Amino acid sequence: MSELTTGCCIAGGGPAGMMLGYLLARAGVDVIVLEKHADFLRDFRGDTVHPSTLEVMRQLGLLDEFLTRPHQEVQRLSAQVGDDIIHAADFRRLSIPTKFIVLMPQWDFLNFLSEKAKAFKGFHLSMQAEATGLIREGDRVTGLTARTPDGELTIHADLVVGCDGRTSTVRDLAGLQVEDLGAPMDVLWMRLPRQPEDNDGVPLGRAIAGGILVMIPRGDYFQCGFVVPKGRAEEIEARGLDLFRRSIEAMAPMMRGRTDGLKSWDDVKLLTVGVDRLKTWCAPGLLCIGDAAHAMSPVGGVGINLAIQDAVATANLLYAPLRAGAVSLADLQAVQARREWPTKVTQGIQIFIQKRAIAPTLAGASPKAPWIAKLVSAVPPLQGLTARAVGMGARFEKVRSPAA
Fold first, then answer.
1. Are 275 and 295 in contact (CB under 8 A)?
2. What per-residue confidence (pLDDT) applies to 203?
3. CB distance 296 to 50 below 8 Å
């Protein structure tokens, strides 16, 4: 058994965990980040990096180098709803330097952050280290145990932060109560070829009666999400791969002949969609943020960006108590107080869209763009307002934690 001591131990090397680790180490706090996998190479994770995250990268002086990594830039969001093309948001109208969404595989984003974080002497990343238990003194969490290839690891910490996703081990171990808000769909993810003639104007979303398809450009392929009613993935698989291919082509005729690349169901991955949030994000010595505190719907692709905003707010509020070695429960409650409102607003919008648009469409209703969506599409200045809402979120967090 190995033992370590640190200021902050972060369970989970996703966007929230890596950004929080970077910011705290930058501010002079000793940090250990645990990632249970051997690398960040998880396909079909969210990869939409919104202007809010790009602005954080710009504030940290990382943006120019970040944009040298392979990526695509999207200045406008559009979707095909039935026969209508709806222009939903125009990021060129934002009054910030980063007037676009970046589409980049999440593993590239996380690798970039980890490389930059390792420049700080207080940053430590432990791969293949999975949290297995919490250490307590009385009612306070004072560390955790983790399973590694070299045996059990014990980490004593002033603060444990759960950033280990929507199936968080940390929040389960802490006994934090989860409120399930429901989701009417799951998503089948796959790769389909992208041809040179597929320009940047291809709608990211397509909806017809009974089906919804998302197409995210990634270089020479599309990351495609086929939205299905909750719990119906096995039924779709039982109908056969050929019918599944034809269903994709019905929604996106440009894909005719390209779906032959789906050779078996091994080429299709199921994302079980859930929307939930913790009633209480913290306990003495412990805090949850990102998906561990609030699992988001894929609607709007906001999950990464809300997690990054959580990390920025957490670092802003906790770097000083951590440097002093005295993090109170009130300090942790301040994080929830800061981030709970934008979480509820975002999830409220997602649930509204799920109930009013996605569920009826999946049930077979002919999709119709709401009147407000048609109004936004017809009045370009309104697309700047929606770009602000989608791109910057309900509450944008500026980096206030210092560079030590």
1. yes
2. 77
3. no
Q: Kindly give the pairing relationship between strand 286-288 and strand 151-162.
A: parallel
Residue with tokens 């939930």: 276
The sign of the torsion formed by the CA atoms of 390, 392, 397, 401 equals: positive
User: In whole angstroms, how far apart are CA 62 and each of 15, 200, 243, 372?
Assistant: 15, 26, 46, 37
Per-run averaged pLDDT (10 residues), the chain, 404 residues: 94 96 98 91 73 97 96 91 90 95 91 96 96 97 96 97 95 96 93 82 83 87 92 94 94 91 93 94 98 93 94 98 97 98 96 91 88 93 95 96 94
Query: How far apart are alpha carbons 39 and 111 in whole angstroms?
Result: 9
CA distance from start to end of the chain: 33
- If one counts every other C-beta atom within 10 angstroms of the C-beta of residue 397, the result is 21
Q: What is the pTM of this model?
A: 0.94
pLDDT of residue 159: 98
- Angle between helix 303-324 and helix 51-59 axes, rounded to 10 deg: 30
The three state secondary structure string of the chain is CEEEEEEEEEECCCHHHHHHHHHHHHCCCCEEEEECCCCCCCCCCCCEECHHHHHHHHHCCCHHHHCCCCCEEECEEEEEECCEEEEEEEHHHCCCCCCCEEECCHHHHHHHHHHHHCCCCCEEEEECCEEEEEEEECCEEEEEEEEECCEEEEEEEEEEEECCCCCCHHHHHHCCCEEECCCCEEEEEEEEECCCCCCCCCCCEEEECCEEEEEEEECCEEEEEEEEECCCHHHHHHHCHHHHHHHHHHHCHHHCCCHHHCCCHHHCEEECCCCEEECCCEECCEEECHHHCCCCCCHHHCHHHHHHHHHHHHHHHHHHHHHHCCCCHHHHHHHHHHHHHHHHHHHHHHHHHHHHHHHHHHCCCCCCCCHHHHHHHHCHHHHHHHHHHHHHCCCCCCCCCCCC
**How much is the pLDDT for 300?**
85
